[in-house]
Amino acid sequence: MMHTAVGWHIEMEFSEDDQHTRAVAMVRLPDGSEVRAHGHASRHYTDSNQPRVGEEIAGARALNELAMQMLDKAHREIDDASGRVSHPIHV
Q1: Cα dihedral angle (63, 36, 12, 30), rounded to 10 degrees?
Q2: Taking Cα atoms as reference points, which of 44, 46, 63, 65 lies closest to residue 54?
Q3: Which Pfam family name is an example for this entry (predicted)?
Q4: Contact at 8 Å (CB) between 3 and 10?
Q5: What distance, in Å, lies between the first and last C-alpha atoms of the chain?
Q6: Mind giving me the DSSP string for 38-84?
Q7: Is the distance from CB of 20 to CB of 40 less than 8 angstroms?
């Protein structure tokens, strides 16, 4: 049986105009640190205005960037704890 030891709280915020959607993702970690990332989506002028689609694209890009930052953070912590340079963590 698995038990939950910690939880992460992720917040997403969006800002939009007729052509662009911007997303900011932030995760608060149990140690009190925060990691933030940004994503962007642009609507081609011939496409219909679908704000939800822009949010999904910008949000996914922000979450992808957040994931890459978390992998980099984990890699640095592994190196700091081991005192050596380890292989990069790949997705």
Answers
A1: 100
A2: 44
A3: Rv2632c-like
A4: no
A5: 27
A6: EEEEE--TTS---HHHHHHHHHHHHHHHHHHHHHHHHHHHHHHHHTS
A7: yes
Does the pTM exceed 0.85?
Answer: no
Query: Which residues are bridge partners to 23 per DSSP?
Result: 14, 39
Which residue, 64, 38, 36, 40, is CA-closest to 54? 40
Separation of alpha carbons 72 and 67, rounded Å: 9
Residue whose token pair is 């994503």: 39
Locate tokens 């989506």: which residue?
A: 41
Give me the residue label for tokens 């910690």: 6
